Amino acid sequence: MNSHQRSTEQPDDDSFSSAMCDLKSSVTKNWRFLIPSCFSGASPSALPLSSPPPTTVHQVWPGRNVFFLDGRVICGPDPRGLILSAISVLLAEWIFLAYVVDPSSKHPILIAVFSMALAATVLVTLLLTATRDPGIIPRNQTSASQEPGTSNLRRTRSQRIVVDGVEMKQKYCRVCKMFRAPRSSHCAVCDNCVDKFDHHCPWIGQCIGLRNYRFYLLLIALALAFYTYTLAFSVRRIRVKLDAPAGAGFFVLLRSSPEMLALAAFSSMAVCLLACLLAFHAFLVAMNQTSHERHKERYRSSSNPYDRGAVGNIKECLFQKLPPPRVNFRAVAESGTN
User: Fold this and answer.
1) Which of 123, 129, 268, 300 is the most buried if burial means most Cβ atoms within 10 Å?
2) Do both 223 and 284 map to the same domain?
3) Do 155 and 113 share a structural domain?
4) How far apart are CA 64 and CA 59, in angstroms?
5) In which band, very low, low, confident or very high, does the pLDDT at 15 lie, cut at 50, 70 and 90?
6) How many CA atoms lie within 13 A of 292 on its CB side?
7) Same domain, 226 and 263
């Protein structure tokens, strides 16, 4: 009886063990789909392979620029000037609201709101100028041995081209390995050739070129309006305090309200510098020249082929449609890109 019972129960045990083995094998084969990979201790070879994201141009760009938001925002290599400029605007606005705006005067809220609007537009324009592609020219990825006329290139580093009937000298850039486009120059700070290069502004930390020059002009004009506004109301408040019946002298006012006097002094210096800078660039716009061309005296011995008259030059600088960026920093980098 017992032996017969054991013989009849054995197949049931075997079938149960076989089913458990099949379940265990199925779970073992499919465990990576049931358990997240971050909690598993399996070897990397057992995990599903995922291809790494492609390398984009801004990740391998040889210049010294700093990129943010996957190449959408491009800044210069040194942000200290940009930070200092932003802090100066914010600090001036804080002193103006805290010490200059008189609550007992007429329309103090309107005065404060207009000042905050000016400060906000200055900061926004500052960021637009500092984070925009100034007109970076793509580099030549062809090696020197593959370039045609390499032997001639070693003997001369410039060539002559004709622009609107005027012969101009075109220099060869050793870094970008190409002849520079007309009106372009290589920025030693950012290490890029920039189209219609004007200068590298240390107070913005970015090159000023074809694609951000009008934002730079707008920034100068708005900053001039902002500091003129703060200077006017600061001087007015100082005069009210000095002309009051119980008013104190200048040195007493210096001890009691040093912030207001400091704002007036700083605003006066800023107004003088910005007014001179805006007048200089207004002259350059009317002549259709850049600061770099003016400094190098590019058109001293020949006429300016880009001069269209004062009205035409202003229209070209301020109202002509800007070209798209010549370098797509978000594109996938080609093999062999430096």
Assistant:
1) 129
2) yes
3) no
4) 11
5) low
6) 19
7) yes
Range of the domain at 161: 150-184
Mean pLDDT of 297-301: 85
Q: C-alpha 33: how far from its chain's center?
A: 44
pLDDT on residue 29: 42
Catalytic residue among 173, 201, 207, 317: 201
Kindly report which listed range (40-54, 141-155, 203-217, 218-232) carries the lowest average pLDDT score. Answer: 141-155
pLDDT in tens, 279-293: 999 999 999 999 999
Could you read off the pLDDT of 263-283 as tens digits, one per residue?
A: 999 999 999 999 999 999 999
Q: Are residues 256 and 307 in the same domain?
A: yes
Regarding whether 205 and 219 lie in a shared domain, the answer is yes
Is 0.90 surpassed by the pTM of this model? Answer: no
Q: Is 193 a catalytic residue?
A: no
In this structure, the chain runs to a length of 338
> Quick check: is 43 in a domain?
no
Quick check: is 66 in a domain?
Answer: no
Place of tokens 């938001």: 69
Please check whether residues 125 and 254 belong to one and the same domain.
yes
CA distance 133 to 73: 8
Rounded CA separation 234/260 (Å): 7
**With the C-alpha atoms ordered 306, 307, 312, 313, is the resulting torsion angle positive or negative?**
positive
